[in-house]
Amino acid sequence: MYLKQGDLFWGMDPDFVKEAMQTTIKENLEEGAVVFREGDPAESFYILIKGRIKLTLGEKSREVYVAYQPGEIIGWSSLIGRDTLSATARCLEPTILSKIDRQRFLDILGKYPTEGATLFQRLASMLGNRLVTLYPSIA
């Protein structure tokens, strides 16, 4: 499975993209399905293919972000060395995700250091954009 251009892997070495995408598991989820819960082990991350996912924090399930753009990463805690996931993710509509095992993906990144650097720059940009979106709600 290949993601459309303009996503996280755009412009990267085709061998890297092929190897990375061969490790994905496609998940089709219904509206209301929980992808993961806050505190779950950070063993995988997800790339949104289609749909919308609400991320919430705490016992009161305070909404912190809605992922809706194809190519967005959720569960990114697993990529930055956290042991547990920091939010709960619930589908707001029928959703398609690519699930990627953290360790398998990091092993592939070890073989492609340039792509790894690019990927983490793009991840930092995504997270920065999410923070800017959150500022009005916490000000």
Notes on the structure:
The protein is of the alpha+beta class and 139 residues long. The protein has three helices and eight strands; from the N terminus they run H-E-E-E-E-E-E-E-E-H-H. Strand 4 (53-57) and strand 5 (62-67) form a beta hairpin. The N and C termini lie far apart (41 Å).
Descriptive tags:
four-stranded antiparallel sheet, 3 helices, alpha+beta, Jelly Rolls, single chain
Q: In CATH, what is the homologous superfamily?
A: Jelly Rolls
Tally of individual helices? 3
CATH architecture: Sandwich
Estimate nothing, just give the exact number of structural domains.
1
Radius of gyration: 15 Å
Shape: globular
Name the helicity range. 25-40%
Largest sheet: 4 strands, antiparallel
Arithmetic mean pLDDT: 85
Question: What is the N-to-C order of secondary-structure elements (H for helix, E for strand)?
Answer: HEEEEEEEEHH
Fill in the CATH topology.
Jelly Rolls
Question: Would you report the number of β strands?
Answer: 8
Which CATH top level class fits? Mainly Beta
| Structural class category | alpha+beta
- Give the strand line-up of the largest sheet: 1-8-3-6
Which ranges are low-confidence, i.e. pLDDT below 50, for 5 or more consecutive residues? 1-6
* Share of residues in strands: 25-35%
Distance between the termini: 41 Å
